[in-house]
Amino acid sequence: MSTPDGDRSDRNELSEEGNVLYTVYLAVAMAYVFYYLFYVVKKPSVNCNPKFLNFLEKHCPILNEKFWPTIWCVETRLQTILRAVMQTRPAVTYERELLTLPDCGQVALDWVYNESSSQYCETKPIVIVLPGLIGTSQESYALHLVTESVKLGFRAVVFNYRGNGGAELKTARTYNATNTDDLSCVISHVSTKFPDSPVLAIGISLGGVILTNYLAKAGGDSGLVAGMTCSSPWNVFESAKSLEKPINLFCFNRMLCNSLKQAVFRHEHMFKDKCDLKAVSECITIRDFDTHFTSKIFGYKSVNDYYQDACIHEKVLNIKVPLLCLNAADDPFSPGKFIPVEDARKSSNVVIVITSRGGHIGFVDGCFIPNGVGYMERIFCQFSKAICDHGEELFECKN
Predict the structure, then answer these.
(1) Given the residues 137, 205, 232, 356, the one annotated as active site
(2) Contact 235, 160 (CB under 8 A)
(3) pLDDT, tens digit, for every residue of 157-195?
(4) The dihedral of CA 268, 130, 109, 90: what is its sign?
(5) Which residue has the higher pLDDT, 395 or 56?
(6) In the annotation, is 116 catalytic?
(7) 230 phi, psi to nearest 5 deg
(8) I want to staple 232 with a disulfide (CB 3.0 to 4.6 A). Which of 208, 226, 294, 318 is the partner?
């Protein structure tokens, strides 16, 4: 039988244990807050020549501010997944245009003409959005980029690659990181349709690789006044290695590979004589898919030849129009140590902005439930407006 003194002693012991646990939890929380404030929250690294930097400091104040990742979501894979899962999807009403290409293929262009805006009048700038590997105009980042473009008074058009976005695949030719012919046709078409409008482009992940390869090939005749890329892999070989690490293979690589295979087998009849479909069906990674499908369809001798052609880390000095490249140092798709910051500092036209955190197309910041306009979109708004409203300053800086 317990006694009053015994009950009191038990309660005291429980109270002491509770105090110890509370102290431990408080210490852990304080340690994490210290770690977050001093090791996570940082200003981005802005890598470019001094004259370009002056332009950015004047017109893109966000680059002078610290990036505050959502406090409970700083890990790279959490950043990547959270943006895809939680970011809102603003309502956008597109007008679809099917553009026929020289080889009788077609791509779908989803437009927001924004004719109601009185800003810029007949010279209303146009933003071309290039989605990621399996992306379309319905991706949350595309919807936000289009919405923010409209708020700026721009027109916006999302370039859905061949066979994507619900458009019929007309030829046995899809898309890849090195084929810039389709983008060239889209830019030419947009410029012909609105000859007085400056044209900008933003490429996300693979879209940024396509855009960078296009700009490196086109030089000063790109038809664009500026561009931006986000989370684009610079060294494709290293990107493939990183994505084949066990946790990245589980979280990203298998899923992306399966989506690519599904797209192929939706048009199986077109490819049965072009590649080994059985080998394609057994692919597990993106590298497998590129080995058995992409490199075959586009005439490369091997996947290594394709990847060598796709790499953009050695092409920075070939770019002749302003290009802002946003990357996170912890991006599992684009390892930070392979970002060509030294070449950016030598270039007259390229700025590489690197945040310490952000994952792949993540850059989730703000409150405890981040779901609206993100860091990427805010940089895009400031940079594109700076180019359209003050671009002559940057041009003068180069002379």
Answers:
(1) 205
(2) no
(3) 999 999 999 999 999 999 999 999 999 999 999 999 999
(4) positive
(5) 56
(6) no
(7) -135, 125
(8) 208
Which member of 334, 360, 365, 384 is catalytic? 360
Over residues 122-165, the pLDDT tens digits come to 799 999 999 999 999 999 999 999 999 999 999 999 999 999 99
Q: Is pTM beyond 0.70 here?
A: yes
Q: Report the relative pairing of strands 323-328 and 350-355 from DSSP bridges.
A: parallel
Is 269 designated active site?
no
Residues 337-363: b if buried by 16+ CB within 10 A, e if exposed:
ebbbbebbbebebbbbbbbbbbbbbbb
In sequence order, what are the residues at sequence separation of 6 or more whose Cβ sits closer than 8 angstroms to the Cβ of residue 294? Answer: 174, 176, 300, 303, 306
Half-sphere exposure of residue 357: CA atoms within 13 angstroms, side-chain side: 22
As a whole number of angstroms, the distance between CA 385 and CA 383 comes to 6
Q: What share of the chain is helix, strand, coil (3-state, %, to 5)?
A: 50, 15, 35
What is the per-residue pLDDT for 352? 98
Q: Which of 110, 330, 331, 365 is the catalytic position? A: 331
At residue 121, the pLDDT reads 79
Q: Is the pLDDT of residue 324 over 80?
A: yes
> Among this protein's residues, is 331 annotated catalytic?
yes
Tokens of 282: 């057994």
Token look-up 């409209």 returns: 150
